[in-house]
Design goal:
Strand content: 5-15%
Number of helices: 6
Strand order of the largest sheet: 1-2
Number of domains: 2
Order of helices and strands: HHHHEEHH
Largest sheet: 2 strands, antiparallel
Distance between the termini: 25 Å
Helix content: 55-70%
């Protein structure tokens, strides 16, 4: 992500402002913080135009619409009882199928 941000000519602060998060969050994602919030990390990558592949490559997300769809579906799934929760890859595959 750092390379894509620099290639886009953006500072961490500029990218954060575009995505509605803090510069600290951008820095943490770039350093690979394992507990970074997935939704915001995906939005950073989409803002930079970085394709996102999940799992074995069956689900590839390359646009804002797919990520937005997946994020909404993930939020709905997280509020479901644990037995009904799904893996992230299934949400992304579903978003790609909707396209």
């Amino acid at each position: 992500m750092r390379a894509a941000r620099k290639e886009a000519g953006l500072s961490q602060s500029q990218l954060a402002q575009r995505c509605g998060c803090s510069q600290r969050f951008v820095s943490e994602v770039e350093r690979g913080k394992p507990t970074a919030e997935l939704e915001r990390a995906l939005r950073l990558l989409v803002e930079l135009g970085v394709p996102i592949a999940v799992g074995s490559g069956n689900a590839v997300v390359d646009g804002r619409a797919e990520v937005n769809y997946a994020v909404v579906r993930i939020a709905e799934g997280l509020s479901a009882p644990p037995a009904k929760r799904r893996k992230l890859a299934s949400y992304l595959e579903e978003a790609s199928d909707e396209r």
